[in-house]
Design goal:
CATH superfamily: Alpha/Beta hydrolase fold, catalytic domain
Helix content: 25-40%
Number of domains: 1
Shape: globular
Distance between the termini: 46 Å
Length: about 300
């Protein structure tokens, strides 16, 4: 299916909302009624990643999905911090602005540290958590991260990210295990938010944050115990070559009571295995084995 419109209204039929911040306007979806599910994306994607989840679950829940500043339909400032902790502060401001309670928090990739910062700061607002392939630990000592950081802080890395739009054009596709699950039209929806060099700084800055925010990640990880009484569901793509199964072991260490679903797919489970992962979420939502006292 080809579409001349961006985003394709059949795939992304949601009204747009905008939250003003000192650095620009942050786009978000807010649709449906009931207890909120908040979807937090990573890089180089945006709320489009969760489009089928929002269409499905908004029949029973209020679905909220922001685009981090510099991503998706949000403003693309050239000059802002753009670190993970910078995005986390804005995300926290949006959540408090919306005054959401009894939240089901769904995080993926960099959305993990960004969303979980809010969760540990406001655990009374969190009902349960769904973790897709994500991380929250010190990263600077990891050989793979050191290699990436060296590239991103070089003139070559700047050229690749800002001139060639390398992250959504190339890295995103490499993160798929089932390459056939990424059609050209869907891929365009991840490329088109970054049409020019001036629109791509967020990609480079958040990429640099993988090592640059290592200390912050470590400090945030020390606060995860504040969520130890929350129902946790982990849905993991076992063929992810970026956020590998070694990170899953860490999450199980933090949350040994978590419900774990392993899928034979890559990093972007939402594109490769939407039906299986949505079924896992439905089962999790229906599981009453862990008690929760709603926030009033």
């Amino acid at each position: 299916m080809k579409s001349t419109k961006f985003p394709n209204p059949e795939w992304y039929p949601f009204a747009s909302n905008y939250f003003p911040t000192p650095d620009g306007h942050m786009h978000y979806i807010d649709t449906g009624n009931g207890d909120p599910i908040v979807f937090v994306h990573g890089t180089p994607v945006w709320s489009f990643l969760f489009r089928s989840y929002i269409q499905k679950f908004s029949k029973q829940f209020r679905c909220v999905a922001p685009d981090h500043l510099g991503f998706g339909l949000s403003d693309k400032p050239e000059h802002f911090l753009g670190t993970a902790e910078d995005h986390a502060k804005r995300f926290e401001s949006l959540m408090l602005h919306l005054d959401l309670k009894n939240i089901t928090l769904v995080v993926h990739d960099f959305g993990g540290p960004i969303g979980l910062h809010f969760a540990t700061q406001h655990p009374d607002r969190i009902k349960r958590i769904v973790l897709f392939n994500t991380f929250l630990c010190e990263t600077a000592h990891l050989p793979a991260v050191q290699k990436v950081d060296k590239i991103l802080n070089s003139s070559m890395g700047r050229f690749l990210y800002l001139r060639l739009n390398f992250s959504p054009r190339v890295l995103l596709r490499q993160a798929f295990y089932q390459k056939s699950k990424l059609s050209k039209e869907v891929h365009k929806h991840y490329i088109m938010p970054f049409p020019a060099k001036k629109d791509r700084m967020s990609l480079l800055l958040l990429g640099k944050s993988l090592a640059g925010s290592s200390n912050w990640f470590g400090k945030e990880a020390q606060r995860l115990h504040l969520l130890s009484n929350k129902p946790i569901c982990i849905i993991w793509g076992m063929q992810d070559k970026f956020i590998t199964p070694e990170f899953l072991v860490q999450w199980i260490h933090h949350f040994p009571h978590a419900k774990v679903h392993k899928l034979e797919c890559g990093h972007f489970i939402q594109e490769e295995e939407p039906e299986a992962s949505q079924k896992a979420m439905e089962m999790f939502f229906a599981d009453k084995s862990m008690s929760f006292v709603p926030l009033t």
